[in-house]
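User: hey, got a sec? need Fe2OG dioxygenase domain-containing protein folded
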Amino acid sequence: MALDGPAERRDEVLVAMGNGNGVAPPQPLRPAGRPAAATAPYLDRRLRLNPNAEHKPQDYSDVRGEYAPAVYSALERHLPPSLLDADRDVKLHFMRDILARYWPQGERNKVQRHKEYRQRILHLYKPLHEELYNMHPSAFFLPTFLEAVRSNSEESFRSIMTEPIPGVYSFAMLQPTFCEMLLEEVENFEKWVHAMKFKIMRPNTMNKYGAVLDDFGLEAMLNQFMEQFVAPISRVFYPEVGGGTLDSHHAFVVEYGKDRDVELGFHVDDSEVTLNVCLGKQFSGGELYFRGIRCENHVNSETQHEEMYDYTHIPGHAVLHRGRHRHGARAISSGLRINLLLWCRSSVFREMKKYQKDFPTWCGECQREKRGRQSQCVKATKMAFLRGAGGATI
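Assistant: Yep! Here you go:
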């Protein structure tokens, strides 16, 4: 069974660092209208194969366009030494040329089409509940959850959580009124899309039902949701997978029922940290099952008995886990279940993991392989000692 994380990667840009030997292409593309003088002196310069860990990238948070600011910050560490002290605009032009060279035109066209689709919706769609589109913590979250976040400590977080298996946390999170309003907003949007004869963008390639919340105006609120209420928890419990450097998200709802998706196959998420909150409604079945955390190299490896766990959804309750924690959803037997998913991502982590061969800090199979190597090393050391002792004279 292939576990290749089939969800569409809407926000991630995979940046190729040269052609295998760290050499940038001799003639990167230069968009029309860009001054040649800005990049011409650097056309034959080499990108660093390994990032310059000591270099502090400039701030690109004000840069708008096809790439997230964190992409430029990550790529700047790979610039040739002669460019590191150049003006920010020069570096920005150089990096844009590199990115344009390695991001296929088809992908750029796809992103542009989605951007136009979203802009058209934002221009025409009238929200049902305007109060959803701005963050109102006391109206959205339960007091116990808010207090834990305000305290911002491992002790306060654990006081509201259960951890049935390592790395999976469950806790009461959302107010019933927020869940109800969000359900009504999604239903209103879906009816509007149908009436307008739009083709709705589904959350990913596995779900045939549901909607992307960012597409109809909730992106800014949900970004605050991630930064202020998910990131503090992730910083404590998932630092090894970028939990402290979350900088983008993909937010959507999924729908399971008789006339909706019935189940979800075994997979991993395109995220570093996933928040999954049940919004309702009445249902039975549809449990979430977990089968161990794996890196790309071990995603198809066997599941150990201690890694097996089934989670039963409760409206308003969240389950938090690593995106690489293999999981699926069992078939729903009755009713309708709708869940809010927030895939939280870290550009920094994605860049850094390109230079690692194994991940024993979080991948279950990498951990077992490391323990096996350590055990073999101890055995070899003992054998060498015994052989030496056997030949010694007293």
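Quick note: Confidence is low (pLDDT under 50) at residues 1-40. Let me know if you need anything else on Fe2OG dioxygenase domain-containing protein.
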